[in-house]
Amino acid sequence: MEKYRLEVSRFLIRKVGCAETAEDIFQSVAENMLRRNPDPPIDDVRAFLYRAAKSAAVNQQRTDRTLDDNHLEDRCLGE
What we know:
- This protein has 3 helices and no strands.
- Helix 1 (5-16) runs parallel beside helix 3 and helix 2 (19-35) packs across helix 3 (45-77).
- By secondary structure, it is mainly alpha-helical.
- 78% of the residues lie in helices and 0% in strands.
- It has helices at 5-16, 19-35, 45-77.
């Protein structure tokens, strides 16, 4: 898994636009991968990491968008 860290992190940086967020996402994906039941085994670790990272990045973007929308809504209500 570590051999793919830099490659997947670069992919995540392009997706989310922030190196720190990308590293947090990779760390979360790696932890989830290590905690999962090893049966069935992961045949292609690289592909698994990319799929999980892409999904986690999309979820992060949704969360960020929701927070931005709520902030905008709060700001508009206060005017």
